[in-house]
């Protein structure tokens, strides 16, 4: 009978530990998923921003050397990701692909295209205020005729990015609150089941630090395992997504994935440490009439 009772107690303990680990891992998995989603959407928005370009049209009397000199000047600017000089002949060849070979024959060979510079900005410098100030400076140069840019498109991209950023921050904060609540509840229930053991240790004169230590260590272990499981779930999710999106090279984000995985484990351990300490202290200070409730 005694062995059977011990077996049941052990089985109940394992069930409680499993439930706690599962709760921690699922909550941390939701947090990890939101972090990964936010990162990839931010990365996508950066790529979209850097794909947007504006064109600097050179003045008619600007020479090839003027165009190349301005191109080099733009490339050295901290705002610029890339600048490409396009001569009138290059522009005509590009238009041949759109309008067909010999589309200039009607003009008796006259080339109406201006020399220009195609400019792509860095994503972190993609603000309307900076762009307008930069373009005003460009247009003041004698070798520049005009600058063509889509300020409406730039405004739309920035608005969409800021709206998503605000939404993402709200969701992550909400998930953190949910995770804190659920992990706290799971750990508290696990330690509360040991309240009689805690009281027995107090009655035989055990120090508070001695009583707390095993529960805190166990809580940290459960948090660690929960964090590792959350990382495994997140890794499986990313593998499934990568298999569906073969054209995307996810290997370039390995460093971020490693940092996120470590952060999730640390979060699980720290939350478990905090709530284990609080739960033990709460159960150490229970009134006698609450011991059997």
Strand-pairing-aware structural class = alpha+beta
What's the helical proportion of residues?
A: 55-70%
- The SSE order reads HEHEHEHEHHHH
Rounded mean pLDDT is 76
Q: Work out the number of β strands.
A: 4
Tally the helices: 8
The largest β sheet comes out as: 4 strands, antiparallel
Radius of gyration: 32 Å
N- to C-terminal distance: 26 Å
Strand content: 5-15%
Principal-axis shape equals elongated
Spatially, the strands of the biggest sheet line up as: 2-3-1-4
Flag low-confidence runs.
1-9
Structural account:
This protein has helices at residues 2-51, 64-75, 88-99, 128-139, 151-192, 195-203, 208-244, 254-284; strands at 53-58, 80-86, 116-121, 144-148. The chain starts with a helix and ends in a 9-residue tail after the last helix. It is α+β, with helices and mostly antiparallel strands and 293 residues long. Helix content is 70%, strand content 8%.
